[in-house]
Design goal:
Helix 4 runs antiparallel to helix 5, helix 8 packs antiparallel against helix 9 and helix 11 packs across helix 12. About 75% of the residues lie in helices and about 0% in strands. With about 250 residues, it is an all-alpha fold. The N and C termini lie far apart (about 85 Å). Pfam families: Myb_DNA-binding, Myb_DNA-binding_2.
Length: about 250
């Protein structure tokens, strides 16, 4: 109520200001003039209180922005520390190659990728490899690097290499080349895997757990991999597993 507001106003005044107000009220002869004086002082107090509240809100917002900026800088510093020293172009290429060579779901994947870097003279830790991969996965850098590796042998199953060799032999024997319906010409494209198909296979293997019925699981996986059949997905999985097994033996 207005009376409560007047009480709050009086309590908010300094002692000297309150004494001065009382003196002015006593000097006012008319009751109406005294009421006008009170209302005028009350209006000024309301205005000052609103300005003070606005300033406090502004200061709180500024403080919040400073805290958010500090938190963002700390997060960036932590991410930079996790990835270690700046990565060279060669290291980035090896990282992309390792991620393709050892897809998601491969046992000891990060250790194998780290070992690949070590074998080329780059002593990165597993933590640095994981942190850098996470950083790249949020942008397009890793995808663009992976596109450069599509022609490497690690992206072709043994049947693809065999089919390519047969095609070369056929070309040498006959300048006209194999007929459009020949089996060797059809075999190569079906055995080749693009980075997009490899990525889709990795995602599907994680998406559909091994607890599913075996046939049903591979059917669902094949549906998620464009341009590949269930048999081709199974064959690709076995090929990658065999590669990993051979590397461990070596």
């Amino acid at each position: 109520t207005e009376m409560e507001e007047i009480q709050d106003f009086a309590l908010a005044l300094e002692v000297s200001a309150l004494e001065d107000l009382c003196a002015r009220l006593e000097a006012t002869a008319k009751a109406g003039a005294a009421e006008g004086l009170i209302r005028g002082e009350l209006g000024e107090w309301r205005k000052r209180r609103a300005e003070e509240k606005e300033e406090q809100d502004r200061q709180r917002q500024e403080a919040r922005k400073v805290e958010e900026q500090k938190a963002s800088e700390a997060k960036g510093a932590a991410a930079a520390a996790a990835t270690g020293a700046p990565w060279s172009t060669e290291e980035m290429g090896l990282l992309a190659k390792g991620l393709q060579k050892f897809p998601g779901g491969t046992g000891g994947r990060w250790a194998l990728i780290t070992q690949l870097l070590h074998s080329s003279g780059f002593p990165r830790s597993e933590q640095e490899v994981v942190a850098k991969t996470k950083e790249l996965s949020e942008g397009q850098s890793l995808r663009s690097m992976g596109a450069k590796l599509t022609t490497e042998n690690t992206f072709q199953a043994p049947k693809a290499k065999s089919a390519a060799a047969k095609a070369d032999s056929a070309k040498a024997a006959s300048p006209a080349g194999p007929s459009p319906g020949s089996s060797s010409e059809k075999a190569a494209p079906s055995a080749e895997w693009t980075p997009e198909q490899q990525k889709a296979l990795e995602g599907a293997l994680q998406k559909h757990p091994t607890s599913l019925d075996k046939n049903e699981r591979w059917r669902l996986i094949a549906e998620d991999v464009p341009g590949k059949t269930k048999a081709q997905c199974v064959e690709r999985f076995k090929f990658l597993r065999e590669q990993l097994s051979q590397q461990k033996k070596g």
